Amino acid sequence: MPNTIYPIRLYGDPILRGKARPIADVNAPVVVPGFTATSLRDVARNMLETMYEARGVGLAAPQIGLGVRMFVAAEYEDDEEEHEGKEPPLKSRVLHEYVMINPVLEVLDKRKELGQEGCLSIPGIYEEDVPRFREVRIRYTDLDGKEWMGEAEDYLARVFQHETDHLSGKLFLDYLPQAVTDSHRKALAEMQRKAKAKLRELEGRAS
């Protein structure tokens, strides 16, 4: 069966500001809005393919309209920080794919580093000086229902913090002065317009 590329929800979509619900049963069927029910495993694979298609390094379930606590991410052979959104990350360069269900982050190093971030739900906007903790521990469940724990530092820690934030309705712009968001007012307003149009389209399909 070919993979599905999901539409990515844009800034202004209410689901991006909601709190995602825990996944109680990894074997229960899942319905991504606008699509037929399928397994969580298939949704995770489709999310990874959607992430690759969009040239990203991570994608959280709310970004495809699914309000559950899950995200996917990939670690590449080279540092994608300079390439995200500019050059397509080749799957041949993938060192490891992550599918994290019900992730819980613990800060191991409270020192913060400033770095550049973008977001697939806020396309075309990249900002420096986004503060993130340097080292974190993350506990999560995999697609087989097995619990895992891992540690990450520097860029991978940044990715995990960014994606976990999505599950609490937080965006990277929230870490920056309001003036930064204001400077992107026109672009963000256009995203909000597109987000509303997409919601109307989905509501039309459901009725």
In short:
This protein is 27% helix and 27% strand. The protein has 207 residues and is α+β, with helices and mostly antiparallel strands.
Strands in their spatial order, largest beta sheet: 1-2-3-4-5
String of helices and strands? HEEEEEHHH
CATH architecture: Alpha-Beta Complex
Q: Which fold name fills CATH's third level, the topology? A: Peptide Deformylase
The CATH first-level class comes to Alpha Beta
Roughly what percent helix? 25-40%
Instruction: Tell me the count of domains.
Output: 1
- The CATH superfamily name is Peptide deformylase
- Overall mean confidence score, pLDDT: 92
Oligomer: single chain
How would you characterize this protein structure?
By secondary structure, the protein is α+β, with helices and mostly antiparallel strands. It has one domain (14-206): Peptide deformylase (Peptide Deformylase, Alpha-Beta Complex). It is 27% helix and 27% strand. It contains 4 helices and 5 strands; from the N terminus they run αβββββααα. The chain has helices at residues 40-53, 154-166, 178-183, 185-206; strands at 58-60, 70-76, 94-117, 127-141, 147-153. A 5-stranded antiparallel beta sheet has the order 1-2-3-4-5, sandwiched between helices. Strand 4 (127-141) and strand 5 (147-153) form a beta hairpin. The protein is globular, with a radius of gyration of 16 Å.
